[in-house]
Automatic annotation (TrEMBL):
Binding site for substrate: 19, 120, 164, 296, 410, 417-418
Gene Ontology cellular component list: cytosol
InterPro entries: GH (IPR017853), GH_1_N_CS (IPR033132), Glyco_hydro_1 (IPR001360), Glyco_hydro_1_beta-glucosidase (IPR017736)
GO biological process: cellulose catabolic process
Active site per the UniProt annotation: 165, 363
EC number: 3.2.1.21
Similarity comment: Belongs to the glycosyl hydrolase 1 family.
Taxonomic placement: Bacteria, Bacillati, Actinomycetota, Actinomycetes, Kitasatosporales
Coiled coil (UniProt feature): none
Protein name as catalogued: Beta-glucosidase
Keyword tRNA-binding carried by entry: no
Catalytic reaction equation(s): Hydrolysis of terminal, non-reducing beta-D-glucosyl residues with release of beta-D-glucose
NCBIfam families reported for this sequence: BGL
Superkingdom of the source species: Bacteria
């Protein structure tokens, strides 16, 4: 296994618009489904909302200076759809686009490569009211939006991703309902998954039409590193089902041009999939320039020993009879098990499954209960240990032939952690939410050293 990262390996950090920007009413922005959801009592812990978040909308220049001080080579951010195309259709908002022009110019001025994600979960509320992702029309709206952003920023952004983690949008949004828009309708969630796939394909086409040839277009997925608890046929079948419902439902059409037959069978009691029209899967199989993999923790499943329905709606429609188990090992503040081998496994899986497709670790990181000490310093040795383990996993995959061009820590800043509000801190930079001041944590200092040396010390 190599001990240093290859020259040219890109070290970055990631954020998402609704989690950091705030300024939700400024410059013509209209509400997204996350504004509606976070303002609905009971949906987000402590009633937290993204109204102010980390105020990145106003403090972006300070944040870019922080990135430069950390030595970051790239910054992965997302564009807020309702900020640049209020209500989700019609003309662009020049003021909304100007924010991203200023941000990108600031990044470029500091030698930091912008990596732009078009959709990180903040659907314009008007589009949800018109049917949301279960409605086919939303995919066409997304393609228009993609073209509009590409025409505005294509002269200065080379690296693009259509969607972030469509699994979360479809299944946390429409099946378990723990994310916006909070619907619990299994058939709607499967339709949503297809329309997100279609949005990706149509969006990628729109990007190609508007962007220079050198642009690199991707999608960012959170493939599930799912393991069977034993090698019994029943447990292996549970693994197969969850793999289909979390990963192959996207990679099937995106990489291979078809939905997996076992997925269609497993969900036959919920839908006949007639919403998939002729030609859709060839649109979805748009050739990618890279694939983003987000990874936090693996899953362990078995066949359920009883068939009691689970008390809460599941994010896996059609997976009755599958039991989830906490994998062994230390856990983060999210209660997610720390297990870097899942990242290695995913990188090797896509190296085999999509030969020649460059990969990036587009998110990886951990939440811990960070607190400043008496002098205001934030020591987070657990996060350093987490990152070190995952960097080693990337090195091991590189040594075994994976083509990984970069790594993006989640997250640059502590931020609005969706249904957990501000209670979970993922940043390598601490945010004091009373003053919005930023303090680089111990992990940020450590990351700076890794970036400088290319070595996991
Ligand atoms: C995924 C994360 C996702 C989370 C949502 C995890 O299983 O790995 O990417 O954000 O679920 O609850
Ligand atoms: C958890 C994952 C888990 C998934 C399925 C997510 O909320 O974060 O670790 O695999 O749910 O239960
Ligand atoms: C999402 C981020 C989120 C992180 C931690 C990823 O699934 O893309 O927005 O904050 O996981 O849950």
């Amino acid at each position: 296994m190599p001990t240093t990262f290859p020259p040219g390996f890109v070290w970055g950090a990631a954020t998402a618009a609704y989690q950091v920007e705030g300024a939700v009413h400024e410059d013509g922005r209209t509400p997204s489904i996350w504004d509606t959801f976070s303002h609905t009592p009971g949906k987000v812990l402590n009633g937290d909302t993204g109204d102010t978040a980390t105020d990145h909308y106003h403090r972006y220049a300070e944040d870019v200076r922080l990135m430069a001080a950390l030595g970051l080579g790239a910054y992965r951010f997302s564009v807020s759809w309702p900020r640049v195309q209020p209500t989700g259709s019609g003309p662009a908002s020049p003021k909304g686009l100007d924010f991203y022009r200023r941000l990108v110019d600031e990044l470029l001025a500091h030698g930091i490569k912008p990596v732009l994600t078009l959709y990180h979960w903040d659907l314009p509320q008007e589009l949800e009211t018109a049917g949301g992702w279960p409605a086919r029309e939303t995919a066409y709206r997304f393609a228009d939006y993609a073209g509009l952003v590409a025409r505005a920023l294509g002269d200065r952004v080379e690296c693009w991703a259509t969607l972030n983690e469509p699994w979360c949008s479809a299944f946390l949004g429409y099946a378990s309902g723990v994310h916006a828009p909070g619907r619990t309708d299994d058939a709607a969630a499967l339709r949503a998954a297809h329309h997100l796939n279609l949005a990706h394909g149509l969006g990628a086409q729109a990007l190609r039409a508007a962007l220079p040839r050198r642009a690199r277009v991707a999608v960012v997925l959170n493939p599930n590193a799912v393991r069977a608890r034993t090698t019994s046929p029943a447990d292996l079948d549970a693994q197969r089902r969850i793999d289909a419902l979390s990963t192959r439902i996207f990679t099937g059409p995106m990489l291979h041009g078809a939905y997996p037959a076992d997925l269609i069978d497993d969900t036959a009691g919920i839908t006949d999939w007639s919403f998939v029209r002729d030609g859709d899967t060839s649109v979805i199989k748009h050739p990618l320039d890279w694939l983003g993999i987000n990874y936090y923790t693996p899953s362990v499943v078995s066949a359920a020993t009883d068939n009691r329905p689970s008390p809460a709606p599941s994010p896996y429609p059609g997976a009755q009879g599958v039991a989830f188990h906490q994998p062994p090992g230390p856990r983060t503040a999210m209660d997610w098990t720390v297990d870097p081998s899942g990242l290695y496994d995913l990188l090797m899986r896509f190296t085999r499954e999509a030969p020649g497709l460059p990969l990036a670790v587009s998110e990886n990181g951990a939440a811990y209960d960070d607190k400043p000490d008496g002098r205001g310093a934030v020591h987070d040795p657990d996060r350093i240990a987490y990152l070190r383990g995952h960097f080693d996993a990337v090195l091991r995959a590189l040594g075994d032939g994976a083509d990984v061009w970069g790594y993006f820590v989640w997250s640059l800043l502590d931020n609005f952690e969706w249904a957990y509000g501000y209670s979970k801190r993922f940043g390598i930079v601490y945010v004091d939410y009373a003053t919005l001041s930023r303090t680089v944590k111990g992990s940020g200092e450590w990351y700076r050293g890794v970036i400088r040396s290319g070595r996991v010390g």
